[in-house]
């Protein structure tokens, strides 16, 4: 963490050279949440692809467990959906694409510390147009945030047990979410859930 406190949850990016105090470093999403709750940093940097529950799930949890800490997401993804999920659903204050990190990390941290939102220059023009519409779109979505998390994991081939572990819920709850999805989406099989996820761009097809 920097200055009054910044939690580095994505590894050494030269943060110790900035005018902030790094108060902790975490190797996984779960560790980042626990450390942030304990140390209460001003800013938390989370990598989308970090081990464990991942950066986005960690951001969701921090919004509830350490709401005073502002989150900056570091990601290799430039897709609008990732940015919308991070900044609209998870409440992140900043989204930094890794290709911009070397030149923009300090600017991102400073902007967020001042109470501003930050987007990588490479994605800002496209995403800003979507952010204003995203809240309205999500409000009318037939799926809750948790259901979208489950449907993405189902589409990625995760078993009920794996979904439970990734989302830190019980296998019984994970199975209930799967069954509720079938009812809500009016589908009968996992294959149909996957098709829905692809059609609504809830998963990436490389």
3D architecture notes:
The protein is of the alpha/beta class and 206 residues long. It has two domains: 6-139, Rossmann fold (3-Layer(aba) Sandwich); 145-199, Arc Repressor Mutant, subunit A (Orthogonal Bundle). It is built from nine helices and six strands. It has helices spanning 29-39, 54-65, 80-89, 98-113, 124-139, 145-155, 160-167, 171-185, 190-199, and strands at residues 6-9, 22-25, 43-47, 70-75, 94-97, 118-119. It has a six-stranded parallel beta sheet with strand order 2-1-3-4-5-6, with helices on both faces. Helix 2 (54-65) links the parallel strand 3 (43-47) and strand 4 (70-75). The chain is globular and about 55 Å long.
Q: What is the fold's blueprint, element by element?
A:
Layout: E1 6-9, E2 22-25, H1 29-39, E3 43-47, H2 54-65, E4 70-75, H3 80-89, E5 94-97, H4 98-113, E6 118-119, H5 124-139, H6 145-155, H7 160-167, H8 171-185, H9 190-199
Parallel strand pairs: 1-2, 1-3, 3-4, 4-5, 5-6
